[in-house]
Every structure is written in C-alpha cells, then in structure tokens.
C-alpha cells in the first residue's frame, strides 16, 4: 500500500527546552524532523526528560542547517553540519555549535518513537 505524508502536517510534535521534534509515522518508517535552537544541549534540554545520563537513541541523520557537536560516552567526538549524513549509536551528548538553529532529519525511527519522551511514558 502506498503511503504519503508531509512533514508540514506531522502526526505529533514534542517540545523540549530550546527545541522541538515533529514526527511522521508510516508503515515501516518513523521519520523525525528535529529543530535545535542555539544553546540547546541534550544533557540539559532532553536528559532530564529521558531520565538518562546520555542519549540512548540511535540516530541516522541528515543535517539541513546549522552545526552540532557530538560527544560519545567512549570519548569519541565529531561535528556535523549542512549536507552531512551521519550514524550515531546510543550513548552520547550533543549540542548546537554557534548562533544558528540546527535542523536535522532522522530516519532511524527510534527518534520519532522515543526521543524527548519521559522514560516511563
């Protein structure tokens, strides 16, 4: 069965400090559009909601705009920016770099399902 939806009319929206996520759910695909404002940091903005010390969501992402620094729990680090495609496993912190909003598409599914939801929700 063909399914078509638009991110302009997401199935759900989750707000968190300095950002929000909009999710579209299709059969076999949960797609997220995440907007992170300058000053956003996972450990400060989403960590208290998730109830974990680091982000435990797997990401397959594409950066549309802005820059984000990612620090893995094992000490590995990297920075993503416009046009970058990335895979980021669970166990990381991340933050917006600079004064520009960071806009990310996430195709992994777990972000659209679980990100910024209370741990026992």
Automatic annotation (TrEMBL):
Q: Which SUPFAM superfamilies match?
A: RmlC-like cupins (SSF51182)
Pfam families xref list: Cupin_3
| Annotated (S)-ureidoglycine aminohydrolase cupin domain residues | 55-92
Instruction: Please give the InterPro entries that the UniProt record associates with this protein.
Output: RmlC-like_jellyroll, RmlC_Cupin_sf, UGlyAH_Cupin_dom
Q: What is this protein called?
A: (S)-ureidoglycine aminohydrolase cupin domain-containing protein
Q: Which organism is it from?
A: Streptomyces scabiei
